[in-house]
Structures
1.
Amino acid sequence: MTMTMTKTATSQSPRYRGIFPVVPTTFTESGELDLPSQKRAVDFMIDSGVDGLCILANFSEQFVLSDDEREVLTRTILEHVGGRVPVIVTTTHFGTRVCAARSRRAQDQGAAMLMIMPPYHGATIRVPEAQIEAFFQQVSDAVDIPIMIQDAPVAGTPLSAALLAKMAREIEQVSYFKIETAGAASKLRDLIALGGAAIEGPWDGEEAITLLPDLDAGATGSMTGGGFADGIRPIIQAHRAGQRDEAYRQYERWLPLINYENRQGGILTAKALMKAGGVIDCDAPRHPFPPMRDEVRQGLLETARRLDPLVLRWGR
């Protein structure tokens, strides 16, 4: 299938832009879903100034959730958001039919966009480029909302800028790209150059650790952790307004906390901050993922307190 004329938005006028942090999944101490905390996490994130949200991503610990729990979380969060901000739902699965069905279901429940990784399983099971293209084509045929391809090292699948641009040109719903590989800024530049108007949303990821160079390269959105959008959004806004010195100043200020999340706290960072600020009741992951070390939590909170993010005050 070649691209149809319905693909009218471009990177100059994208449907979605700005900061779309990942919503962490909240559990009780015994490992059950904690839906009251989940709703408070969503409310806090909206209050922090997000442009949208993303659910069921890797930073949501999607890999420890059952299919039934995915359904509960998708329904609960989308109903609770109630259209206040657009929500991206991650529907990644190796199987084309399963991913297409997940994606259609998410659309029917109110998802604004889908985020999908290329097919992979474990450390070694991959598919060639022709199968990747066919996978995204079939998922696109099943939905009417944009697809964001997540280009991340965890998939272990090389996705060249040329391949991504080709899919953007030829597959109707493929129009957003979250680039999290090494040399992200260079890849964003190549993707934009090769894909032209078909690249509606070239986005930054990986907790904003490369945000400023990615914005310089043309990124129009960023998918970060969920703990401190109130610190990262002003960087994006200043850069968009042409105030690069101000963007640099803000980035320099928040970089220690961005770095702490990216290199130390990882997936559990947002939940540790939210628990410290009274947003959620428990910051534990689900077994067998290890809990955050006390020393890491102490360093994270010390770094955060220097910046006074909303997360440490919201629930107090």
2.
Amino acid sequence: MNIIKLTSKKLVFINTGSNQNEYAKYERGIIKMNSNSNNVKTKKSSGSIIGFLSTSIILFIVFSLGFLPVVIAGRILLFFIAFNQLWHFFLLPFFIYMGIVITIFYQLLISGLVIHLFNIRYEPGVYDYSYRDKTSFRWILVCVLYTPMRKILEIFPMGFMKNVYYRLLGMKIGDNTLVGGTIMDPCLTEIGDNCTMGLYAVIYGHIQVYEDEKLILGRIKIGNNCVIGAGAFIMPGAVVEDDVKIATGAVVTKGQILKKGKIYAGIPAKEIKKERR
């Protein structure tokens, strides 16, 4: 007879007579499972380290190139103005302001061109949230390059440059459209003509499921002549047809379709029916 005894740390197989090979088989199985588990963890760890180093190096190179023009401009300025007279220092605030504008412009231009020229984009789907997954790595890389610029654009709108930057990142923007909110995934977002997106509105093209280590990506399509109220949220896979109005603070859920010419409000967004008079 064989007995399996549970101790505080492990299962102990006690052989009381017959079939002495069972314990050896059991022990080999446990060792093999632990070995496989350790191999998987080692691969994930090495992949994460390589991925982190890769993104860090790319980030350093791109942002260094973005600072290069203002460094050159500063060096030229010092050649003409030595700042050895009092009135020179009255010009200093103007030069600092111009330096900030030049830096922001070139950071947007260079990071946008890198993403555009190297075609760093991703498609809708469900992926493993890991550096080892090619699509997830592309998404992480875009986030690393785009997030600082997105934060800057929230402070300095930069006028027409904002839409140019979004187009470099793969976003489709129609004519006469104002994007006042935040676009989280430009390459998965499409907005038609004559649309207005209010301040603090957010369009999400992704959902991170940390428990399952999954990344869900979905395309968002917004038609023509639409109004997105301030503070509204639009989730992945949503479709907003032409002439739709979304109220302030409404939440358009994942995969939801808003019908043409309707008005939606609430959490989740529901159609507001006009009262008959």
